[in-house]
Structure formats: C-alpha cells, structure tokens
Amino acid sequence: MTSTLPALGTLTAEGSALQAVLLDMDGTLVDTEGFWWDVETEVFGSLGHTLDEAWRHVVVGGPMTRSAGFLIEATGADIGLDELTVLLNDAFESRIDHNLPLMPGATRLLAELAEHEIPTALVSASHRRIIDRVLPVLGAEYFALSVAGDEVPRTKPHPDPYLAAASGLGADPVRCAVVEDTVTGVTAAEAAGCQVVAVPSVGPITPAARRTVVPSLDVVDLPFLRGLMTDLR
C-alpha cells in the first residue's frame, strides 16, 4: 500500500460532512474492463479454450483469484491459479503499455478534488503491479493513498479494501463517498458503510438506499459528492 497521509485539517471540508473520496480504477477511472475480458479470452484461447460471452458478467469487477478460478473451473483448463494469474497480469500490462484510455470526466474530477484538498484514495481489486503501471497515467499526485487487491486479507466484494482506505486517510467510512462501476465494487463499498456513486460499465446497477446511479463521471463533481452527505451534517 502506498500512502501519503493528508494533514488532519483537510479531512472535513467546511460546510460538508464529506471527509474523503474513494475511487475504483478499472472501468471507473480507466476504460479497461473490456481489456480484462479481451486478455482472458486471449490467454484461454492460447490454452485451447473459448470463453462464453455470458461469463463476462460473472468475472467483471472481481478479484483475480475469483475470476481466474471461475474460468479455470468453467473451461476445465489444465493450468494452476498461480500460473494463470501471472499470464493474465503479463498480458494486461502489455495491453495497457500501448493504450490506456481514461473514462470521460476522470481527469477533471481528480483535479477538482485535489484543488479543494479533498483526501482521495484509489481502491482496486487489481494487483499492486497493475496499479503502479496505471497511477502515472492517472496522476499519482491526485491520490493520498492506494489500496491493491493483493494487499488486503479479503478484496472486493468484501469491505476490507474500503475500510483500509478510510482508515489510512483517517476518515469515517460513513462520511466517505465511493465511486464504483460494478456490482462487486458497490457491494464492497456498501458493506464498508460508505455512500456510493455507481457508474455502470458492463452490467446494470440499480439505485438503492445510500447508492446513486449516474450515466458517467461527467455528472459527478464536488458539489454532487458533498450533496450525498446532506443527512450527515
């Protein structure tokens, strides 16, 4: 986990109960959810197996161990989880080295949060080696903290990554806004007690209590995020 903790004075913006913003990476800030499926299809193709498109919604947004394990079982591929994980991460790194598109509104939102000194963390189910490749493109300076899927005892859909991020920032999870793109990530954030903004990337996500669904990051800004905390003031 990389961490540069903000001064305590920055934790609560004046007039707002919002203490921190925690953002998912794949499919939320970078347009890479499709990359993962392409890589999985490519790697399993090299092993002599064709992936069923219906499985895409099963593996999206989850930790490598879950998605890779599911695909091994579903295809009957003769490969171990550890070996497959290396192949998938290698193929993904190669792909993002050539092209890493950001989601619309991502850079603008990160710059706005930084301008107003809102503590911000990157919270991903991807492994540290992947996060460290992506951070320079996103702007590592925008994040006080990052949490990788292989750095917590249980990753998404468990609450551990978001609880770790909130703790690292010295924030109350209830006063953190999370931005996510999958049901898996939303489940993790809600289990941690956070207010969630869902920007669906692959599968649909329905609105619920403490969950707001929006079409893109273009409609998410600091006033929007502060407004989610109205009942906590």
TrEMBL record:
SUPFAM superfamilies: HAD-like. It comes from the Bacteria. Keywords: Hydrolase. This is HAD superfamily hydrolase (TIGR01509 family). The keyword DNA repair does not apply. GO terms for molecular function: hydrolase activity.
